[in-house]
Prepilin-type N-terminal cleavage/methylation domain-containing protein
Amino acid sequence: MHCKSRRFSQITGFTLIELLVAITILGIVAVLGWRGLDSIVRARQTLNGEMDQTRGIQIAFAQIENDCAHVMDANMLPGNSVLTAAGSKLMIIRSVFEDNLPIRFQVVVFNVVDGVLSRRELSPTRETAVLLAQWQSAAEDLDGTPSIPLQSKVESFSLRTWKVGETGWRMNGDNVVNAGDTATSANPVIPPNPANPANPSGASAKSATLAGVEVSMQVQGREAPMTKIFLLGAN
């Protein structure tokens, strides 16, 4: 009886060394698991950040494309610019179409300030004097119109233009038709044309001096800048 009790006591439980080995193995597994989980979380955060950044760039480019497609015909404001690309600032006079309302025009401005690309739009109008005054105040950033941020962490924002009759891109540029006299404040920018509803402005086909604008934007964290070309007056 005494011998059986001794054998039973010898084969039960774990030794201290066995426990230490088991704890060490569990610790190593836990560390490896934590590192793997941490890398997955970091990768997900990076991916989400890149997706948000890409989405912001796409929204900004889509807005620029839409504004360029509806740029005002330069012949309607002879001697004045309807599009100016200078440095990190793009100004456009675009047509505004709304149901049951005559065509109107508004100044929109894209600009990079403190690494943030933003867009602001002034009130639509049909009066030449008002439109020119808005253009001047926007050019001097005195219009006081609130801006909508489109993209942050912008390191550079450059503009090039393509002029009709030329064979290469030029840095910056503007769209001015120097022909005739400018309209007076007594008359609206665009007289109605009820005889032709498809062309309510009564204007001739677009004869923009500028044919296209190239926008190149470098965003922090990207190896190369995002570049896109926009046609003017596509709509």
Notes: Residues 50-231 form one domain. The two ends are 104 Å apart (CA to CA). The chain has three helices and ten strands. The chain has a mean pLDDT of 79.
